[in-house]
Amino acid sequence: MLIAIISDSHDNLDNLKKFINWSLENKIEKIICLGDVCKIETIKYLALSFLGEIFLVRGNACLYEASELKKYQNIKYYGEIGQEIIDGLKIAFVHEPEKIKKLIEYNLDFVFYGHTHKPWLEKNGETLVANPGTLGGVYYQATFALLNTETKKLELKLLGSL
């Protein structure tokens, strides 16, 4: 299964549209969103354009209320910390990097975080810790991550080179 991990789109609809189109063409089944989508209108676009499951945590710049997300059947909202087991892989995801240290103690396969906008991959024991960067292209080029659950391979993708 292919899962895209995004963060910090900051309502950049042009980049979000390009990402969604790429995701549909490449048969992405799930999206893990690490926050800072910001406005509910952007969440609506994401939920209606991508029909697969979307796992969402709150970022520091989000302007919507959790209750507004209930109408989108494909969004699973976690608040600050999300955890899932997907194809046998134990995955946790947050917005703030300060929460990673505690999560690593739980013997997870992957921990994803956002907020810094800087794409990053780092092995910590048996856990791969990754920041997909900023889909919005704020401070850094627009990036996201792609996880293949069959091969357990994670790669960073540059949106501008798709």
Task: Give a quick set of tags describing it.
single chain, 162 residues, alpha/beta, Purple Acid Phosphatase, chain A, domain 2, 6-stranded mixed beta sheet
CATH names the topology as: Purple Acid Phosphatase, chain A, domain 2
The fourth-level CATH homologous superfamily is Metallo-dependent phosphatases
Question: Helicity level, as a percent range?
Answer: 10-25%
The topology string of helices and strands comes to EHEHEEEEHEEEEE
Mean pLDDT figure: 96
Strand content: 25-35%
Walk me through the structure.
By secondary structure, this protein is of the alpha/beta class. It has a single domain, classed as Purple Acid Phosphatase, chain A, domain 2 (4-Layer Sandwich). Strands 4-3-2-1-10-11 form a 6-stranded mixed beta sheet, with no helix packed on it. β8 and β9 form a beta hairpin.
Give a quick rundown of the structure.
The protein has 162 residues and is an alpha/beta fold. The protein has one domain: Metallo-dependent phosphatases (Purple Acid Phosphatase, chain A, domain 2). It has helices at residues 13-25, 40-49, 100-104, and strands spanning 2-6, 30-33, 53-56, 75-77, 81-86, 89-94, 110-112, 120-124, 127-131, 143-148, 153-158.
